[in-house]
Amino acid sequence: MLLCLSKLPSLEFYLKNRSNHFEIHLELKNSLNLQNFVTTIRKLGLIIDAIEMNPAYANSGLSVYSIAITISNEELKKYKTHKEIIEALRTLDYIYHIEEI
């Protein structure tokens, strides 16, 4: 029982980080940048399954979205983790904040 409790969380973390699907919380500096973000995602070989705008941030000046993404590029599946993909996206100048949900 102790072995299961100690090893299963690390296995879950590994499998979750290598899965083809993940969701992100995205805050853009301007809603017009959503098209640029979608274009960048497609160029990376990622597929957007769903985009949901968060109305709680309506008057904050930010455009906030929850986005479900599927990794379709074989090279990304093989060599990159979700964290590495998000770190690469974080370097885009029109993104205010991005994190995995």
Overall CATH architecture: 2-Layer Sandwich
Unreliable parts: none
Question: What distance lies between the first and last C-alpha atoms, to the nearest angstrom?
Answer: 29 Å
Strand content: 25-35%
Which outline best applies?
globular
The CATH homologous superfamily is called ACT domain
The level of helicity is: 40-55%
Which radius of gyration do the C-alpha atoms yield? 16 Å
How would a textbook summarize the main sheet? 4 strands, antiparallel
How many β-strands, per DSSP? 4
Quickly name the level 1 CATH class: Alpha Beta
As for the CATH topology, it is Alpha-Beta Plaits
Number of helices: 4
Structurally, the number of domains stands at 1
Short description:
By secondary structure, the chain is an alpha+beta fold. Helix content is 41%, strand content 31%.
Description:
- 11% of the residues are buried.
- Strands 2-3-1-4 form a four-stranded antiparallel beta sheet.
- The protein is globular and about 50 Å long.
- With 101 residues, the protein is an alpha+beta fold.
- 41% of the residues lie in helices and 31% in strands.
- The protein has four helices and four strands.
- The model has no long low-confidence stretch (mean pLDDT 87).
- It has a single domain, classed as Alpha-Beta Plaits (2-Layer Sandwich).
Write the layout of secondary structure elements.
Elements: H1 2-17, E1 21-28, H2 34-43, E2 46-53, E3 63-71, H3 74-79, H4 82-90, E4 95-100
